[in-house]
Design goal:
The protein is an alpha/beta fold and about 325 residues long. The protein has 15 helices and seven strands. It has a seven-stranded mixed sheet with strand order 1-7-6-2-5-3-4, with helices on both faces. Helix 3 packs across helix 4.
Length: about 325
């Protein structure tokens, strides 16, 4: 039986509905099912879908899916560019107002949890990026390796190190940067992600969460195998051939792209697929950890029979609470 937990209704006003979950949990199927029932527009909450030319490895909605329902914040940047949670929050706020003005329900769909946090709760004040410190960290990592950098993080900020795998170079770099710039660990700067009543009322969140880890792992492996058959490695090969991208750009650090880039650089293709699947599993684990900290979320067991119908029905019930401005 599908499990639906959490409060049955949310007090007005609702700005938009949020549909979250780990990668490969079935969010797209639910969003498209809802679009067949009520007039909606989808705002992507995904830090990889913003990039043009990165289609296969991001599981980007195809032309038919995008024709069936309007999608936003997809293909808005070149992979050389950077996107931030703060910019996402501003873009999403604008889009939510525009969509509502057209009489359609805004549905925010994705798995980039920092973006959800930025929109629903705001961002913590934190030291700005320091190019000199980042360059020094990159140089140290090149000499010592990211595993050693992770070990250093464990000494100065054990709470952050526990939630980051040793290969997550982007987040390890940022955490060490914050420490070196401010003298305070990143975990001290970050507030809890549980939200508050106002955020939960304005941005009610439905979460697709499997009860079986094995089910999710099988879905991740099957989806990645389908990406490979669709030409994922050739997609990364074309991106490399442009000549203006490098593996340190946020776009190329996305799960799957990082492993494919390394395999193409070294010529060693023996483990890149297994490494990409393992990294995707780690991403899903982090996504679930974040979601579980949001106590007011509504949960549908994504591996249960009838999960799509249950999730769609729950969103449709919440949609009845939404009122056009």
């Amino acid at each position: 039986m599908t499990t639906l937990t959490g409060p049955a209704a949310v007090a007005a006003p609702i700005a938009a509905l949020c549909l979250a979950g780990p990668t490969a949990a079935g969010k797209t199927a639910v969003a498209l099912a809802l679009a067949r029932r009520i007039p909606i527009e989808i705002v992507s909450v995904d830090s990889a879908l913003v990039y043009r030319g990165m289609d296969i490895g991001t599981a980007k909605p195809d032309a038919a899916e995008r024709a069936a329902v309007p999608h936003h914040l997809i293909d808005i940047l070149d992979p050389t560019q950077r996107y931030s949670a703060a910019r996402f929050a501003a873009d999403a706020q604008r889009l939510v107002a525009e969509i509502a003005g057209r009489g359609r329900l805004p549905l925010l769909v994705g798995g980039t949890m920092l973006y959800f946090k930025a929109l629903r709760e705001g961002l913590d004040a934190m030291p700005a990026a320091d190019p000199a410190v980042r360059a020094a960290l990159d140089a140290e990592a090149a000499a010592r390796g990211w595993a050693a950098m992770h070990a250093e993080l464990a000494r100065v900020d054990p709470a952050t190190a526990r939630r980051l795998p040793p290969g997550d170079s982007q987040r390890i770099q940022r955490a060490l940067e914050v420490w070196r710039v401010s003298g305070r660990p990143l975990s001290d700067w970050q507030r809890g992600t549980g939200g508050d009543a106002a955020a939960d009322q304005r941005w009610p969140l439905l979460s697709l969460e499997p009860t079986s880890r094995a089910w999710l792992h099988e879905r991740i492996a099957a989806r990645f195998a389908a990406m490979c058959r669709a030409g994922f490695l050739d997609e990364v090969r074309r991106l490399r051939a442009r000549g203006d991208l490098d593996p340190d750009l946020p776009a190329m650090r996305c799960v799957g792209y990082r492993q494919a880039w390394e395999a193409l650089s070294t010529g060693d293709f023996g483990r890149w697929e297994a490494d990409a699947v393992a990294a995707t599993r780690q991403l899903a684990k982090r996504q679930l950890t974040w979601l579980r900290s949001i106590t007011a979320r509504r949960i549908v067991a994504s591996d249960a029979h009838g999960a799509v119908d249950a999730a769609t029905g729950a969103l449709q019930a919440l949609a009845a609470e939404w009122r056009r401005p």
